[in-house]
């Protein structure tokens, strides 16, 4: 690869970089060359396409459906109805801080490139880039693992209900069948992501439309069909303290209920990772981040309200003895239709709507993963880097796509031995990813406070304040979601999130001290000449 100097060497003479790269190219190509990279990916995404990928990854149908039972158990309606806007408020602040940095540095590398540039004045760029990059990439793989495994589990429930239900002799797929579902889903996602970006753009826009329409259909249809509906008083004031976790503190319960909201609102760094394929990237990338979060907030709250109006008996919905085997929202859908029509088929169809949304969420997640792998390996940070950053004739990072699918499959394998081990691994999906979000924001408000040059999208004088609030929120949720979720604490009930995240930090730090500090210089230019 031509040119192995570190990115920071380019910063001193931007005009020379553009001149050396050729001055007649379009604005986006010039901007990318100014940042040190020769364009290799096809720039074919509009603002809506960029937004669609991120909106599909956030996918309120995915997060709220898979963790609705958690919300019901820990706080119930109050924790969900009021916890959602609380988490949303701080999430949009994190998104604004990220969007401002994205506008200044619109590259596929995203977070780790931002950290390198923001720390370049203090010579900490390579280490900051290494730390941020590995938290980002492992967090993304964990997100894909979690999303596709949750789809496999939902398929398990759909089959159970379709064959008679838990109490009617229905078929409950074994853990080996579930992992086979997971593998098949990942295989299909890898195949789709091997298609040209124009196809991915189409699928992304379709997925965004499906998520939007699906939310509105379900939030109206399910409570409308149910013969018994919850009162407004129940939806807005009922606080469920009855849980199987042995937790009695109302504040503690409410905090645990926030997990549903915070887990749902992740993955919006995808817009940054797609900027090298997005037109007017320094404007449309940041707008993609903010619009995806903002619209998800509105439709997500509506979805929670609509479904909660169909909730009556929380203990029964959470019971493993119900028809859905304890999958709360599936039981809500099933009972709503069965109560009116004598059959739960309509509820199963509704679960199918959710399953399609989760499928597209996983597909878009692999898209984002592969762009991060492509960028990180382009800068030599990964083993076998020359292999992973190759692009095919369609200008798709094909090897990065298949690597992302394979790693996500491997991360699900611990579920065969221990769900505790699996849950520890996927906990990185929320906390690990948010740490990666917070690192460049922290560097922007500290080390780079005086020399940061914003792009077209900027927060002006409020940038530092917004950045600090974002960092403090990430610190807060990191602590809160590391607390025990079940008492008494045993090896089977311990919350392994701090173990998993701490273990990742130790591995990344050790690899830096032992090896990477000698050869990894941060983002490198691939410009010739």
Automatic annotation (TrEMBL):
InterPro entries (UniProt xref): AA/rel_permease1 (IPR002293), AA_permease (IPR004756)
GO cellular component, one term: membrane
TM helices/strands, residue ranges: 47-70, 90-114, 173-192, 199-226, 246-266, 287-311, 341-362, 400-422, 428-447, 459-483, 495-514
Pfam families: AA_permease_2 (PF13520)
Source domain of life: Eukaryota
Topology of the protein relative to the lipid bilayer: Multi-pass membrane protein
Keyword set, alphabetical order: Amino-acid transport, Membrane, Transmembrane, Transmembrane helix, Transport
Molecular function in Gene Ontology: gamma-aminobutyric acid transmembrane transporter activity; L-alanine transmembrane transporter activity; L-glutamate transmembrane transporter activity; L-lysine transmembrane transporter activity
Subcellular location: Membrane
One record GO biological process: gamma-aminobutyric acid transport
Family from the record: Belongs to the amino acid-polyamine-organocation (APC) superfamily. Amino acid/choline transporter (ACT) (TC 2.A.3.4) family.
Protein name per UniProt: Amino acid permease
Organism of derivation: Triticum aestivum
Organism taxonomic ancestry: Eukaryota, Viridiplantae, Streptophyta, Embryophyta, Tracheophyta
């Amino acid at each position: 690869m031509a040119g192995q100097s570190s990115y920071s060497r380019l910063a001193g003479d931007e005009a020379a970089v553009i001149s050396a790269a050729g001055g007649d190219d379009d604005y986006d190509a010039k901007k990318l060359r100014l940042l040190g990279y020769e364009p290799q990916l096809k720039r074919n995404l509009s603002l809506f396409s960029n937004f669609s990928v991120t909106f599909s990854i956030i996918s309120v149908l995915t997060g709220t459906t898979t963790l609705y039972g958690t919300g019901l158990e820990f706080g119930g309606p109050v924790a969900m109805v009021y916890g959602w806007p609380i988490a949303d408020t701080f999430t949009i602040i994190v998104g604004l801080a990220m969007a401002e940095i994205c506008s200044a540095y619109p590259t596929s590398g995203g977070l780790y490139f931002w950290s390198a540039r923001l720390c370049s004045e203090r010579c900490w760029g390579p280490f900051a880039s290494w730390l941020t990059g590995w938290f980002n990439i492992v967090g993304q793989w964990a997100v894909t693992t979690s999303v596709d495994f949750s789809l496999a589990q939902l398929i398990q429930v759909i089959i159970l209900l379709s064959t008679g239900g838990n109490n009617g002799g229905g078929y409950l797929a074994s853990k080996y069948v579930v992992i086979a579902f997971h593998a098949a889903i990942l295989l299909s996602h890898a195949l789709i992501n091997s298609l040209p970006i124009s196809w991915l753009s189409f699928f992304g826009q379709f997925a965004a439309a499906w998520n939007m329409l699906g939310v509105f259909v379900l939030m109206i249809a399910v409570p409308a069909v149910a013969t018994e509906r919850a009162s407004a008083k129940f939806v807005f004031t009922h606080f469920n303290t009855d849980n199987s976790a042995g937790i009695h503190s109302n504040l503690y319960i409410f905090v645990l209920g926030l997990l549903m909201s915070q887990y749902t609102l992740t993955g919006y760094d995808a817009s940054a990772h797609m900027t090298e394929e997005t037109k007017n990237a320094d404007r449309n990338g940041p707008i993609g981040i903010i619009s995806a979060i903002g619209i998800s907030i509105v439709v997500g709250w509506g979805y929670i309200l609509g479904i909660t109006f169909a909730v009556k008996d929380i203990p029964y919905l959470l019971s493993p003895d119900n028809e859905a085997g304890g999958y709360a929202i599936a039981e809500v859908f099933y009972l709503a239709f069965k109560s009116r029509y004598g059959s739960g088929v309509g509820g199963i169809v509704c679960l199918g709507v959710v399953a399609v949304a989760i499928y597209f969420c996983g597909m878009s997640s692999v898209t984002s993963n592969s762009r991060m792998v492509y960028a990180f390996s382009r800068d030599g940070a990964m083993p076998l880097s020359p292999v992973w950053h190759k692009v095919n004739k369609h200008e798709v990072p094909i090897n990065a796509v298949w690597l992302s699918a394979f790693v996500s499959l491997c991360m699900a394998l611990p579920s065969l031995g221990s769900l505790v081990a699996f849950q520890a691994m996927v906990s990185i999906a929320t906390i690990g990813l948010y740490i990666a979000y917070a690192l460049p924001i922290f560097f922007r408000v500290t080390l780079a406070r005086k020399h940061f040059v914003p792009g077209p999208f900027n927060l002006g004088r409020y940038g530092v304040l917004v950045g600090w609030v974002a960092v403090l929120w990430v610190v807060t949720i990191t602590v809160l979601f590391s607390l025990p979720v079940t008492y008494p604490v045993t090896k089977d009930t311990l919350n392994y999130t701090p173990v998993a995240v701490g273990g990742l930090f130790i591995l990344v730090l050790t690899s830096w001290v032992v090896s990477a500090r000698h050869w990894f210089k941060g983002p490198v230019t691939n410009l010739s000449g």
